[in-house]
Give the backbone structure.
Amino acid sequence: MDSLIFDLDGTLWDATEAFYICWNEAFLKYDETKNGMSLEEIKNVMGMTMDDILEKFFPQLSEELRKDVIDECTKIELKYLSKNGGKLYPELESTIKELSKKYRLFIVSNCVNGYIQCFLEAHNLKKYFIDFEDPSRTGLEKAENIKIVIKRNKLIKPAYVGDTKWDAIASDKAGVPFIYASYGFGDLDKYDYKIDNLKELLNITNIKG
């Protein structure tokens, strides 16, 4: 293994409380979404794209209105996160700092453009990560974005770290080993390696790939 590609939500940080505040502020502006989403509902859709989330909870939205709602959610969310950041998982920076000495580090997440940048800049973590990708920039699903990062950075033996079934599926499609972050939002029984906290990544020595 020469590199680690990370999911963001449920893997590096938990921003669901920020989503709850920001999304519901945006939802109140439209009759079709004014009932909003609960915190638990938001936690249960982590790993999905915003487009898929709105399709699931507000299927009555037209394509045009769904785009407007996404834009409004994004505007409020990015403003909030750029100022406040999210809830980092325990020992994140110290672990990432140590990992960066041994592996090249990347992020691929199903998020809006600017979201990964908020994570990196609000918490001063940009110096540890070489590259990142998201579907708002490529128009592609997570597996393809993993492949893009691998090709762009000439990675030989990468592994993907994530917490949901969507991450496991993407890893499989991309042909890379999957490290399951069990402390996140998912509940999985199929993975190549499991960690119960971020620090356990420092002890990985037997991942194939």
User: Anything to note?
Assistant: The first strand starts at residue 3 and ends at 6. The two ends are 6 Å apart (CA to CA).
